[in-house]
Design a protein that fits this description.
single chain; about 425 residues; alpha/beta; two-stranded antiparallel sheet; 14 strands; CHP02679_N; TIGR02679 family protein; DUF2399; CHP02679
Length: about 425
């Protein structure tokens, strides 16, 4: 409370004993509709002291009552005439500080943030900010400061104008465009906006709340534990999004492993037949191979051991094979995307466990792959013919988007089977001699 207020006003409406009454009166002004007046005010649930105060303010008899109706215009006129304050609202502000008109503040903020959106010239960024998630993201990273938000948008647009790039490093892009090699590091506001714009064009990820069936045919819900099974989260996911935009982040990490991929004859030295080969994200983006993959079957496995077994068995006669090495990272995703764009038909096999199914969902959704001996029939056959190869199946269930019966079968048998354990059957398909 303001101790510097007029002593007459202090005696009339001040003091801690009337703080709750003043708060209730202030709320009526705070919640007034746009363009509306606060008149009259009915106050209920009054204590004897509060009723006496309001009766004195209104010039009414001191009758005991739990409610009173205040003629605000009359009170305003009386306070102005006495010289204590210009109005009841003015009196409350002199005692306890400014009253914020909530509807007016909301309109003001809406106008300010609409101006931020209208100032965007990049269509992707403007489209993002028109969604509740997008404008909410901008407000969070700008700490609800519209001026800071406008500057973030301006800098993000400068970066977006350079994308897609062709193998530039993220630090070089940041230095060239923003004058700071670290301006696009993970967690920086501009980087967050740029990545959000690029993710708009990506296929939506699996819904973590999507139901899957249990062995009784009833639905169960996925939990956050399932999401945690995906290694490609956080910084890894950001690296993959940058890669889609042609920007390199830690471009030598987790290179893509493959065998006998079909390229033009001029690249035979780079991709030697019969020998496993690694390709970094840097090389795939800066000097993409000339793929000769139209109509070719390219098999995709989860585990490097299977690729090594295939190389030893068939050598140069092995069908084209790519290894994701678990959930594919940026280099593996880039390689699979290039092969799919070149017309290759991708076929995927992985471990018969829940992470394996999640990886399969990703490969088939993102790259248009088809299952390769990776259905319910194949799982049941493996369980029956080679029970010694199985081990207990743990974790939360994941629905196989390509074959719902596979999830049911795995829930029923409760065993997992590693991909390498099925090498004998998979090698039959890889004989390309």
């Amino acid at each position: 409370m303001n101790d510097q207020a007029d002593p007459r006003l202090q005696r009339l409406l001040g003091g801690e004993h009337l703080a709750l009454l003043r708060k209730r009166l202030r709320q009526r002004f705070e919640r007034a509709p746009l363009g509306g007046t606060v008149d009259p005010i009915r106050v209920a649930g009054l204590s004897a002291e509060e009723h006496a105060t309001l009766a004195s303010l209104l010039g009414r008899p001191q009758r005991r009552s739990k409610s009173l109706q205040i003629n605000v215009r009359q009170v305003d006129a009386d306070l102005l005439h006495s010289g204590i304050a210009t109005s009841l609202r003015d009196a409350l502000e002199k005692l306890d500080g400014p009253i914020v008109h909530l509807a007016g503040m909301r309109l003001h903020l809406q106008t300010v943030w609409s101006g931020v959106i209208e100032g965007c010239r990049h269509s992707g960024l403007a489209s993002l900010l028109l969604t509740p998630e997008g404008i909410g993201l901008l407000k969070r990273i700008a700490r609800r400061d519209a001026i800071a938000a406008s500057e973030l948008c301006r800098r993000a647009e400068e970066v977006l104008r350079y994308l897609p790039a062709k193998g530039i490093t993220r630090s070089q892009l940041a230095a060239d465009v923003l004058g700071d090699a670290h301006a696009l590091d993970n967690g920086r506001g501009v980087a967050t906006l740029v990545l959000a714009v690029w993710r708009q064009t990506a296929t939506p990820a699996d819904d973590p709340a999507a139901p899957v069936a249990n062995e009784d045919g009833k639905t169960i819900r996925k939990s956050s534990e399932d999401i945690d099974l995906i290694p490609a989260g956080g910084a890894e996911r950001a690296r993959e999004t940058w890669a889609r935009a042609g920007v390199l982040v830690n471009e030598l990490a987790r290179p893509a492993l493959s065998l006998n991929l079909p390229t033009s004859g001029t690249e035979s030295d780079r991709w030697r037949l019969g020998e496993p080969a690694y390709a970094s994200l840097r090389s795939l983006l800066r000097s993409p191979p000339r793929w000769d993959a139209t109509g070719r079957n390219v098999y995709v496995c989860e585990n490097p051991n299977l690729l090594a077994i295939a190389a030893d068995r068939w050598g140069a006669g092995c069908a084209p094979l790519v290894c994701t090495d678990g959930m594919p990272a940026a280099a593996q995703r880039c390689l699979l995307a290039q092969l799919a764009q070149a017309g290759a038909r991708l076929y995927y096999h992985g471990d018969f466990d829940w992470p394996g199914l999640r990886i399969g969902n990703h490969i088939m959704r993102e790259h248009g792959a088809e299952p390769w001996r990776f259905g319910a029939v194949d799982y049941i056959a493996a369980v029956r013919t080679a029970p010694s190869l199985a081990h207990p199946l743990g974790g939360k269930a994941v629905e196989a988007a390509w074959d719902g019966a596979l999830t049911l079968a795995m829930l029923q048998h409760r065993v997992a089977i590693a991909e390498e354990a099925l090498a004998a059957s998979l090698l039959q398909d890889l004989d390309d001699r």
